[in-house]
Amino acid sequence: MLKIRDLNVHYGGIHALRGVDIDVEAGQIVSIIGSNGAGKSTLLNAICSVVKTSKGTVEFKNKTLPKQINKIVEMGISQVPEGRLIFANLTVKDNLMMGAYLRKDKIQIQKDLENVYGLFPRLLERKEQMAGTLSGGEQQMLAMGRGLMSDPDLILLDEPSLGLAPLLVNTIFEIILNIKKMNKTILLVEQNAYKALSIADVGYVLEQGTIVKKGLASELIKDPVIQEAYLGKKKV
């Protein structure tokens, strides 16, 4: 579904991504793990043309992605950004409807809104509440719900557990699995490496802008080097 080859990004003299190759197959959860500053968010922003690439290709369903963000959304890709970036002065419902701003199918939009409320019952309870008054966990749910309202085939999730209490982290990852069951494909960037790998089909390790390891998530989570570096387990 998503094919990235030799992707490079520069921020001035800083080489943020270096020859990144990634494959995401339909129906998978693919997790990108790595430390702060590894280039994880830059990768998602490069896919969506939020940042300019200096070299490489990104293909989605065998078509090269355009440079216009709205065209990328129309092709079936939705990004849930780090920090949520909700519209604080709009209601929960209005935030969700902003996710569907490119769509014309009003009947299906209403059905999808009901599906989002089913996935996030808390949002239904607060649909007329101003988004800026929600808790951090509720705002993350809102950002994810808004992303779903564009009816994407591929969802890019950027640090969905950032700043959340452990109990809410578990809830967010359960929701990600439920989103997968809705026939969605997910590319997940997440600093909580254990959680990310525990729900993923495939994992990639990004260090200083370079993919240093990839494989089945079930195997990576058992890798002693990854356990020591990212999972907080020391070699015996």
Question: Short description, anyone?
Answer:
With 236 residues, the protein is of the alpha/beta class. The protein has a domain at 1-75 and 187-236: 3-Layer(aba) Sandwich (Rossmann fold).
How would you explain this protein's 3D organization?
With 236 residues, this protein is of the alpha/beta class. The protein has a domain at 1-75 and 187-236: 3-Layer(aba) Sandwich (Rossmann fold), CATH 3.40.50. It is 37% helix and 26% strand. The protein is built from 10 helices and 10 strands. The strands form 2 sheets. It has a 6-stranded mixed beta sheet with strand order 6-7-8-3-9-10, with helices on both faces. A 4-stranded antiparallel beta sheet has the order 2-1-4-5, with helices on one face. A hairpin with a 2-residue loop joins β9 (202-207) and β10. α3 (92-98) runs parallel beside α6. The chain starts with a strand and ends in a 6-residue tail after the last helix. 42% of the residues are buried. The model has no long low-confidence stretch (mean pLDDT 94).
